[in-house]
Description:
The structure holds 3 protein chains of 3 kinds.
Chain A: H1 3-33, H2 41-78, H3 92-98, H4 101-132, H5 138-146, H6 153-164, H7 172-179, H8 193-219, H9 223-231, H10 236-247, H11 249-263, H12 268-273, H13 283-290, H14 295-324
Chain B: H1 2-20, H2 35-44, E1 51-56, H3 60-77, E2 80-85, H4 89-98, E3 105-108, H5 111-119, H6 130-137, H7 141-148, E4 149-151, E5 157-159, E6 161-168, E7 171-174, H8 176-182, H9 190-202, H10 220-233, H11 236-243, H12 252-265, H13 275-280, E8 299-301, E9 321-324, E10 336-346, H14 351-361, H15 363-370, H16 390-400, E11 404-407, H17 409-412, H18 415-430, H19 435-448
Parallel strand pairs in B: 1-2, 1-3, 10-11
Antiparallel strand pairs in B: 3-10, 4-5, 6-10, 7-8, 7-9
Chain C: H1 2-36, H2 41-46, E1 56-62, E2 70-72, E3 75-81, H3 82-85, E4 95-99, E5 113-122, E6 128-137, E7 154-155, E8 162-169, E9 174-179, E10 189-195, H4 202-209, H5 213-244, H6 250-260, H7 266-279, H8 285-308, H9 313-321, H10 326-337, H11 339-355, H12 358-363, H13 373-384, H14 389-422
Helix pairs in contact in C: 4-14, 5-8, 5-11, 6-8, 8-11, 8-14, 9-10, 11-14, 13-14
Amino acid sequence: MSPILQGIITIILGVGGCAGYFYASNLVLDRFIFPARDDDHGRNINRATMVRPWLFLAPAIFFLGLYLVYPVIGSFIRSLYNRSGDTFIGLSNYLQMFSEEGFRVALFNNILWVIFVPAASTFMGLLVAQLTDRLKWGNVAKSLIFMPMAISFVGASLIWKFVYANNPDIGIINAVRDIFGMDPIDVLQLQFWNNFFIMFIMVWMQTGFAMVILSAALRGIPEETIEAAIIDGANPFQIFFKIKVPQIMPTIVVVWTTITILVLKVFDIVYAMTGGNFDTEILPSYMMDFMFRDDGRATAVAFVIMVIVTPVMVWNIVQARREMR
Amino acid sequence: MKTSLYVSAATLALVAGAAQAQDLPFAIGEGDFAWDSYNEFAEANDLSGQTVTITGPWTGREKEKVDAVFRYFTEATGAEVNYSGSDSFEQDIVISSRAGTAPNLAVFPQPGLASDMASQGALTPLPEGTADWVAENFAAGESWVDLGTYTGPDGNDNLYGLFYRVDVKSLVWYNPIAFDEAGYDIPETMEELKELTEDIVDDGGTPWCIGLGSGAATGWPATDWVEDLMLRTQEPAVYDQWVNNEIPFDDPAVIGAIEEFGWFARNDDYVQGGAEAVATTDFRDSPAGLFAIPPDCYMHRQASFIPAFFPEDAEQGENVDFFYFPAIEENDLGTPVLGAGTLFGITNPSEGANAMIEFLKLPVAHELWMAQGGFLTAHGGVNLDLYADDSLRAQGEILAGATTFRFDASDLMPSEIGAGAFWTGMVDYVTGAEAGTVASEIQTRWDSIK
Amino acid sequence: MDNIAGQKSGLSLVTNLSVIALVLIWLIPTIGLAVSSFRERAQISESGWWRAPFSVEQAYRVSPDADGAVQDGDTWVLEGNVFDSSEDASGEGSVSGFGITSRAPGAAEPGMIYARYEVQVIEDDGEQDDTNIEIAYEEGSEPVFPETDEDGQEIVQDIPPIFDRSLQVMRNGDFVYRDADEITRGPSIYITAAQPPEFTMDNYETILTSDNMDRAFINTLTVSIPATVIPIVVAAFAAYALAWMDFAARGFFIAMVVGLLVVPLQIALVPLLTFHQTVGIGQSFLGVWLAHTAFGMPLAIYLLRNYMIGLPRDIIESAKVDGATDFQVFTKIVLPLSFPALASFAIFQFLWTWNDLLVAKVFLPSNSESWVMTVKIADDLLGSRGGDWGILAAAAFVSIAVPLAVFFAMQKYLVRGLLAGSVK
């Protein structure tokens, strides 16, 4: 069967199935199990109201439970077993890992990523948002800077491979160096700094996202506060840093954490740019070396990533609970 | 609008692709191919409606050639063959066999990986009698049987892999026109080769093109260098000990070979683009330097399959040729030759898979690729006249003239070393790490999987 | 007052300039690749894309037939035109330089005579030895021999140089080749010629016809459309429940969704593939759809709930008072009103699934029949076409054309939905 046909059938079955499920289950609930008639009228409506949320939630719970909650637990348990999965070895995978140079490099780089990419993207996003705020062609500029968001990580890597190429007839960086009479360099091989060149690809892609949200937040600042500041004689920089930034701080934090989460998922860029060579390995790509060869080690790496994001997760939950009150 | 445009272009392309698939490069029954056994095979097998899926490491032009061979299988049996080549074959095959969606057959570039998978029960032993057949029909048959025999999950040894295509790795490719114009002679010894390297630099040229890039497999071309140099600096017995980790990876013998490689690859003047370019230049792209005007480089050490990646205007004997990567005269170790091969293993048994193995035993299956070029075989029953050019015959002679023949060490090592740590280690080495450090890291990884 | 105005316009100039600079930095890489996708391989490696509109100096080797050679006194002569002898060398039929070795393909100006002589030199160790030198001179004049060769070794002046060969190539390609020996095989003539800029659709044609990219394109569509539609339906119901229904565990579930937003999907790969194998899905499109549906679920619920909770309470309450069930309220009121958020998530999820590499690599079979475009580029093209930038660029553009179109067409919704998710 051709995949297109298969896809169409899936959409019909999937969507139809979902809609059918919701419709039928509600129908069954209202008509047959707790019919809203006769003497049990009131009690049945109440009971149906208690059950109904679960009908609405059931498919989502199924997906979340099976594909996200179970793997977290399953991975942790798997990481306590050896490579073939038949012997319990406690924390040996973790101990072994931390003693290895390769893992430490990946961990270090990953921490660099987590610090640099969200910080740089948010900063650039804020900068662009502020600069384009009053500009006539601001929307065009924004839309162009937002564009990389639509490009795949693999596509973006290709685009930047081209920029970084160490042949001055291909790579624009080396072409510029060439004009100044400098020898071409391969920036992907510059130990330590190469990480930043790779990270910049991610910044390039995420700045647009930060910009869109922060720009909306900037517009949401009440005019009066700014006018008051102008009357007090504040210069544009003071207005920006002392008045605007503090007011949109919550939004900045949201943007920051969203990008942080994304950073911890991305393996494509490193995979396509260097394949993890030249000390640019990060945990998600390091994990690929082990995946399905030594699942114990692979899941241990995954769990380390999980541990790194846990603070963000806790913070998110606390934040969400606060909002609900 | 844009979408529909692309979709219709894509549909057109599909139709065109289907038409192309019918082409057979050599008419059946014509030429000096062994058609008789092919016709017998065709009569004995009717698998119409079946599909044989195969994955392997051949992509691009090599894929086109092997696809052409498979078309004869389709012609004979009626079964469709769906071959996919991937740069990260080593990862993909492991994942798909884990997921239970392995193809029928896999083409392993490394016996080490096949052996790993056989021990996990992911491979099915080849039909009974194949081992005897290989022993009888392949040149030096027993050794090919040994290389394809692994221990299964039940602890029994069986033949799991049938070798199809052999590569001679100890070759240096050069451009005879450029050599001629510059007045360079073909070096007979390693000493002369090094002298030539220096001469070329003195003349203002760049002697070598070396490229290690290969996607997820980046680094492997360097392992070939090290192995070749290992065979030229050490006794074959030491090489065997190294393969089996009976001497550690950071033994001075191994470090010495790595540093010999460094003599060529880590010198900015000796390699095109400087030492820095070695790690990132794609190995398929790297021989192009031989054909540039002015030449980007004069020599390129690579296995016999590399002509598949030469630019289109390359013509064997005209503007490209090869010589034997010479031995070190001083060491007096004879003329060692490094080789490798790809082997078919059954990852998901089916009638079609067995038929394919039968097909690959036919001389014609080998001859069909021989005639397209870039293919050597150990099959003893093929018509040697069908080699696409004299160079393949000459490679056969190099193989025959070897005093020592050894299989590619990295292909025999456990895949986490031979298709992992060794590769990345060599990339680290060419980008500046110490040979000793790199070697001991590889040894640590090896210890961790024991 | 003037002062402030001046400051303002100065500032706005700076602002304009810095925005222009930023936009350029953001655009240049993409433009570079776009331009390159229309260029030929040879031109790409010969000159940077920023010089694409100008002609490129390229060197060619021409090897004319030796058939027409005639003897002329002591030497043999071959005449002809380089452009007749070679298909590759075109260059508007105009030679800009020529030579007799590939090392110096443009050593002489057209019209000059370029000759090689054998001379005697004194080597560093004092020995006398013969070597070749090459000299260019005007037609009609005599060659002037230098005092040292190119390595700086002294040329012995009293031994007459011995003529080896000479070449003259005119601008229009006519050449005269003389050799001291009989010309039995075609000599190597090197010329340099300006190649006019050339733009071609060949790369796109190659990528869409012979390289199976068409198949990958269809596969990508097949993966991303169901993987976009299904999670929306499932998540919309869940989001409604979490926004407008009252039940005990609501707070817990909202917290759970927020928490799961963060789970790195790497952690799911090993257990899930094993699970898929156990239930018999294995590596298949169904598996990818399920995986994408699940991985997109937390964000979908989160975005939709945040949007739905902002809907006016009165409408929903009054509908309920009128006797509408939750199901009716949801389908008749909430769903239509939530359209912007639904669209926003749909775009998000579509971009994500279209652009995904990891999930496709793990959950789809690894054969060319099922490769999506990202896998095709990363695992096949980057390798087999490693140095062929034109093809790679074309492939990249085929793969980003659809998301870019979707992106620009629906940017409005994307922004609106994003804001629902993060700005209160």
